[in-house]
Write the structure tokens for this entry.
Amino acid sequence: MEPPVTETQVAIIGAGPAGLMLSHLLQREGIASVILESRSRAYVQQRVRAGVLEQGTVDLLDELGLSERLHREGLVHHGLLLTLDERRYRIALTELTGGRALTIYGQQEVVKDLIAARLAGGGEIQFEVEDVQLEALETEHPRVRYRQQGTARELRCAFIAGCDGFHGVSRPAIPPGVLTTYERHYPFAWLGILAAVAPSTEELIYARHARGFALHSLRSPEISRLYIQVDRTEELGDWSDDRIWNELRLRLAADGFTLRDGPVLEKSIALHHSFVVEPMQHGRLFLAGDAAHIVPPTGAKGLNLAVADVRVLARAIERWYRAGHTEDLERYSERCLGRVWRVQEFSASMSALLHRLPGTDPFEDRVARARLEWICRSQAEARSLAENYVGLPWD
Ligand code: FAD
Ligand code: PHB
């Protein structure tokens, strides 16, 4: 028996930041979409990940009328603190970038807001779908076959947006030989915790320390987010809460600074990985966000890059529907990849600057320290870091 068929204009695979943002951008242009998500709504709303939103990401949420809670609860940041040898240096992000700022607001909060608004506006998100398969990508009528609660279904569309993250099915649906992959695995990971304690700092602290990198970030006046560098082979089970807090205390130490600790609400280990595929499209399938590229989290860029991709994609699809223009669709990869590689370079250089590996050649260690010191002393260097960190303007 043939499966029940539904039709839409754009099939979106994945309800992460990329997929959800795309559905909102398309809706604004009157273009219909259906999102297929393999996890439950509760799961995607609780997945703890990023927290730093660039000015451009916030501006886009403003434009779409999706930022009311973000402005109420988000924490606006005008600077960040770099630490070397227990001395803190402030990078005045806003001053150095002509007034741009960052907002700290958990990724899962963004996801909650986007899902609620999409469903309230009559949008369709199907959660807990299984066996998603993309077909007929090289035709004008691609299809997605999947199962929902055991029933086989088919979604017909004009375009498929692969927004299903690094482990999704969209990228592997592209035939062998089409994509070129560029990647680097780093020998370290971040152990991250979310803790029920007031942040011990008003601005993010990035610390380079002989014992390894540490980062103090924030989520709210009551919740802190902290990370330490660990070896990529470390097991979460070997890290008791006390051991994590002790390590954080050592690595974040500075004159007059006291780290408050508290109950750990969540902990996880994330490996560092840089990854890009070129092109980001094949036939009527367009990859966006982590499905096409991964950056190490040191530059706080993954979510912002995902949003930048779908902004380009939504415009290209809109121009195709409105005026039959194919040029923007054809140039989708090229447009996204300029930003992707800028951000890859920034994220890799922030990682190299701030992490210390056991057994590092002492010469390299001295060079990295000299570079960090120079960034803290030279306004030109600090401005370059600030421009990248707050995010490149849209084209
Ligand atoms: P995802 O968020 O991965 O969403 C993909 C969605 O697709 C998921 O909901 C998934 O369940 C779904 N899916 C997967 N497979 C299928 C399938 N077969 N069918 C249907 N659905 C499927 N970025 C920043 O910008 N700033 C930060 O501060 C930052 N910090 C980070 C800290 C950590 C510890 C980590 C791990 C990441 C961080 N990032 C940060 C990166 C950021 O979280 C990701 O880049 C972002 O989630 C990418 O969004 P996405 O929508 O492309 O992919
Ligand atoms: C976070 O708040 O989760 C965060 C902040 C800065 C980073 C990465 C993650 O570089």
In short: The mean pLDDT is 96.
